[in-house]
Amino acid sequence: MKIAICYNPKKTDKGYDETVLRLKSLLEDAKIEYFDLDKNSPKPDVIAVLGGDGTILANAQYATENDLPILAINVGTVGFLSSLEEKDLEIAVKMLSQGNFKLNEKTALMVSTSNGEKFFALNDAVIEREKITQDFTVVSKLDFAIDGNSVYKLSSDGIIISTPTGSTAYSLSAGGVVLAPDLNSFIATPICSHSLYTRPIVFRDDKQVSVTVMKNSCSSVLSVDGRGVKRLKVGDTVTVKKHSKKLKIVDCGEDFFNRLIRKLGK
Fold first, then answer.
1. Contact, 222 vs 197, CB < 8 A?
2. Which entry of 36, 53, 147, 255 is annotated as an active-site residue?
3. Euclidean distance between CA atoms 53 and 144, whole angstroms
4. Gap between the Cα atoms of 76 and 55, Å rounded
5. Which of 28, 110, 120, 256 is 20 to 30 Å from 207 at the Cα level?
6. Residues with Cβ within 8 Å of residue 107, at least 6 apart in sequence
7. DSSP 183-247
8. Per-residue pLDDT, 260
9. pLDDT at res. 257
């Protein structure tokens, strides 16, 4: 078995470096081949990610498109996507050496723009008003449609299109509901809507949604998994649908609702 180790090189915390070295030492003791993940790495069997949810999200596209499972070890703050904590390194290596683990599949998003650009998202795609703008209005005016049928026209700060995985992230903070991971659904959550009647809506994940920047809207920005990727102007449309592949994450068997309370209940 070959393990690619992925960690955040920008972290300068001494304890973080020691955790990475400790994992490598345990892998050596177990006689498991490993290497740091980079663009020249051979294809591994498993990607061991040490960090928080941001580090997992940064590597989710590579793992998904190459059908590689992620073993997520939380060395961050919340680490909602992680099955194991920093104290569980020995358990992680034992699982790898024995091949004794289950995989959880997580639905991802394929996000497209009017000019054909495509982006991957595990958590969410967000279309929101540009925070620094010289336009007269600072409100995003967006037409949200499902399978070509307009659901509502928003005057708001924006809208979040989220997977079940992302439903516990930005969408939840904006007033959306939690989607259990076994639901084949997405959720659209308006951000600070100016109307009482534009509430979050849950819909099947085989639907395709579109968000169009309408007339008199300020400039908007498309973000995927918290990363701004495209400035949008009036008339631009963002299309969001289910990705053809799913991310596989090593599952240690913890009940989802127990994790929800343990990670987010404080």
1. no
2. 53
3. 28
4. 9
5. 256
6. 163, 164, 165, 184, 205, 242, 243, 246
7. --EEEEEEES-SSTT---EEEETTS-EEEEEPTTPPPEEEEETTEEEEEE-TT-EEEEEEEEEEE
8. 85
9. 84
Residues β-bridged to residue 2: 33
Which amino acid is residue 118, in one-letter code? K
Cα–Cα separations (whole angstroms), residue 66 to 32, 43, 63, 183: 21, 9, 5, 24
Cα 103 → chain centroid:
17
Q: Enumerate domains of the chain plus CATH numbers.
A: 2-100 (3.40.50.10330), 108-244 (2.60.200.30)
What does the alpha-carbon distance between residue 206 and residue 68 come to, in Å, rounded to a whole number?
A: 24
**Is 53 tagged catalytic?**
yes
Q: Which of 33-37, 81-85, 91-95, 247-251 has the lowest mean pLDDT?
A: 81-85
Phi, psi of 241 (to 5 degrees): -145, 170
